[in-house]
Amino acid sequence: MVIKPLTVKGTTQLLGVIGYPVKHSMSPIMHNAAIATLGLDYVYLPFPIAPDQLKTAIDGFAAVGLKGFNITIPHKQTIMPLLTDVSEVAQAIGAVNTVWWSDQGWCGTNTDAAGFIAPLKALSRDWSHAPALILGNGGAARAVVAACHQLGCSNVLVVGRSADKLAAFAQSWEMSPLQPNLSVHTWDRLDELLPMAGLVVNATPIGMAPKIEASPLTDGQMALLPSQTIAYDLIYVPRPTRFLQQASAAGLVTFDGLEMLVQQGAAALEIWTQQSPPVDVMRQALLEHVF
């Protein structure tokens, strides 16, 4: 893929991503590829912002006219009180990953849910009779819960190791504006739940480097899933993960976290530019860089 190089001029507007550290972020790769393809007068840069400098950085961004930015660890929660407006979905997830400037000040949302469901929507399935089974109950699982609610899944089953953490997870959704049909279950009940799933999501770190041969499910448990179940792993390195290798061997349709990364980025770029992003270009830029 040949992408026209960006030309930075006196009129070029700034976009970016903040985090600490942020040098690992692949967002500049896909966003600058998209910006070049669209022929926009923007550039997308990484900004390493230490936690104690967050307020100073946000004020500085407003001063220099930054158009918008993405947010990664450790700022996704701590930035929320600094924003003028936070979307309903970001409030429900408890984290912001996309911010833009408006006449009222900085506004924030979370595009992870939109990124997660984008490839699922393309399947044109009726999700109203398809329970979603989410493996894990950390921060990533929160975005998936919101996404499954938006998708219209009949109910959302969250599985975790700690009963106390699961109880806290469930309680945190009781006052949510989304009100998903949510239930939580300990890991020992997994074999009972798998035959119900229309969608199974790995929202745990199991399968990441260095333990790339690990999977949250055994081969026997994978065989318990109905043939129409979609298997989705939020991990994208390695590609495919052991979890998705098992799912493919069982004949299931699979998606990985690379698509979520691309789609959440595309949703953010559309907010900033009001243009339809070149998703294929963004995906290919990442594939060429990562693989």
UniProtKB/TrEMBL annotation:
Pathway(s) it belongs to: Metabolic intermediate biosynthesis; chorismate biosynthesis; chorismate from D-erythrose 4-phosphate and phosphoenolpyruvate: step 4/7
Keywords from the named record: Amino-acid biosynthesis, Aromatic amino acid biosynthesis, NADP, Oxidoreductase
Quinate/shikimate 5-dehydrogenase/glutamyl-tRNA reductase domain ranges (all copies): 126-205
Pfam families, alphabetized: SDH_C, Shikimate_DH, Shikimate_dh_N
Active-site residues, Swiss-Prot/TrEMBL: K76 (proton acceptor)
GO cellular component: cytosol
Annotated SDH C-terminal domain residues: 257-287
Function: Involved in the biosynthesis of the chorismate, which leads to the biosynthesis of aromatic amino acids. Catalyzes the reversible NADPH linked reduction of 3-dehydroshikimate (DHSA) to yield shikimate (SA).
Cited HAMAP family: Shikimate_DH_AroE (MF_00222)
Subunit structure, as described in the record: Homodimer.
Matching PANTHER family: BIFUNCTIONAL 3-DEHYDROQUINATE DEHYDRATASE_SHIKIMATE DEHYDROGENASE, CHLOROPLASTIC, SHIKIMATE DEHYDROGENASE
Name by which UniProt lists this protein: Shikimate dehydrogenase (NADP(+))
Organism: Adonisia turfae CCMR0081
Upper taxonomic lineage: Bacteria, Bacillati, Cyanobacteriota, Adonisia, Adonisia turfae
Gene: aroE
